[in-house]
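Entry 14. Ran structure prediction on the chain below.
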Amino acid sequence: MVSLVQSTDLSFVLRRNLLFVHGKGGVGKTVVSQTIATALSRQNLKTLWITLEDPTCPMGELRLLSPSLWHLNCGFLPAFEEYLTLKIGGGPMSRFFLQNKLIRYLAKAAPGIHELILLGKIWFERLHYSHLVIDLPSTGYSLAMFQSTQNFSQLFQGGPLNQDAQAMLTTFKDPQTTGHLILALPEEMPLKEALELHGYLTPLFPDNPPAFLVNRVFPTEENHPKPILWTTPLATSMEDYIHKRIWLEDQNLKIWKDQNLKFGKLDFIPPQVKPNHSSGILEVLIQQLHDRAYL
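Output, structure tokens:
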């Protein structure tokens, strides 16, 4: 059977120098991206986990989380100042641009500059780490970041910004360097939106198809009751709820299976065994990545 949606093996994508984690808001991108970054760092690989303008963390702060693992909360203004310094150099001219309110206003207002600078910071940092794992914003804004960078490279011909935009897009399209991971939940809307996201990413990265991963999947049971045997759609017990949820997730996952799509799974962590802190959750997910040979 020929695949209707082109994808790449998950284990290959997770090991690339740059890994962009895409998906609808609320599917667990932050936890999953941090899990992947932590797992890579434990293989003695110098790894940078990047969040973009997370309001809960200082902008532009680089933190050491553990041996071989750093976290950067990438913010526009710190990245913009760094970019100007790289292009202009130090001295009075650089300080003039950095301190000028009009320059800062124009930098924020110019179409595509905000996205170009954030992606440019990611692109620049790839040279200093073995692996970068990027927790992208929700689907709409993450697409706008790549699309606006492409538009910028097409609209403004010549100059250092255009050259950098072209070089960035070349890197992001390269399947030897960059991986794109689409994350979803086993629910109808996130699974369908993931396919729509794939449709938008394909023209941007035609030779670099993404990998797919479903988060929080109930472990499958053998011989769970079929719906025809159910007397009510409402769960009558905890066991009945589990049976119904497994069946519903199976039906939802057919949205991807009907496309002959290869994808990985991360299991739902039940509340009664879920650790009480985020580091414990990471350990459970890292073990799943290893057990399933994703990393």
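The domain at 10-291 is CATH 3.40.50.300 (Rossmann fold). Will compare against last week's run tomorrow.
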